[in-house]
Amino acid sequence: AVVAMLTSPLLAGAEVSPAEAQGMPDCDITCGNMSVPYPFGMGPARCYWPGFNLTCNTGQQPAKLLLVLSDPDFGMDSNFHVTEISLRTNTVRILRTNAIMPISSGRSSTVFFFGNYSEAPYSLSTGNEFILSGCNLYVMLIGDDTEDVISGCASFCPSNISETFFGTVLQRANRGRYCNGMGCCQANIPMSSNGLPTSLMVVNRNRDQELTSQPAYTLIAEEGWFDQRRLSKEIAGREKYEIAKVQVPQVLQWEVIQDLPRPDDMTAHPGCPVEVARKLCKSKNSYCKRGSRGYLCQFMDGYDKPGSNPYLPDEG
């Protein structure tokens, strides 16, 4: 059976130590072996900036830190296991199930990928890559707008497709990025300016996918993870419910959006307004910078030290 937790060396040592975390007074900042630095937080609303609430699942040992995103269109919540929070790079690493999207044979389609999380302060980081495996397929990753193409790639197979062909593809593993468009392809993901992508557009020109047990699928994963695993070999012939259990690492970029005065046209205001900097960046050694949809706080050179937090007043 497919193992539900695929340990990635890219995620080793990812958690923030309690000494490095700093939160609001009288708020929990630890969950299992993870620490939660402000603007993230758990529990009462005073413990986090709007949009940065996390949940600690204590039903497991060790407890698991979760990011819960709600999709108003479908009335559903999605849970993502948080394995790292970085104030320095403004990223969150997550492990996601249901991340491997099977592609139906012989037809083109549009499938939902992340859901409608337009109010969430997250977008895909450039530390991810887009992966497609299968024959005679072209897949595009679409943002909020159907004309907003974030990434995409095409994968082709010879007309005399066979298991030997896919075996040859798999043998290229562990030699760097090995999907070159024959049998599978990989593509970089640029920074998305409109939040998380919502759907995949699949153009299927394949008639022979059913002739092989090799499934057609697509996924987004932290860059390098796919090359280190013989994922195609692991999921070949598996049932869809087993494939859905595989936990795939992804990196999300975050920025503060809610509860701040924002101009209608962010591109016309490249800097950080004084009122935003005053409200958001509380350390006297920090400065405010503009993101693609919101704002961020960073430390001035030499002041980014363990236990410090640009979003909170300096201690002492």
From TrEMBL:
GO molecular function, one term: polysaccharide binding
Membrane topology: Single-pass membrane protein
Keyword Signal: yes
Localization per Swiss-Prot or TrEMBL: Membrane
A GO-annotated cellular component: membrane
Native source species: Aegilops tauschii subsp. strangulata (Goatgrass)
Record keywords, A-Z: Signal
Top-rank lineage group of the source organism: Eukaryota
Extent of the signal sequence: 1-21
Domain Wall-associated receptor kinase galacturonan-binding: residue ranges: 27-95
Protein name, as recorded: Wall-associated receptor kinase galacturonan-binding domain-containing protein
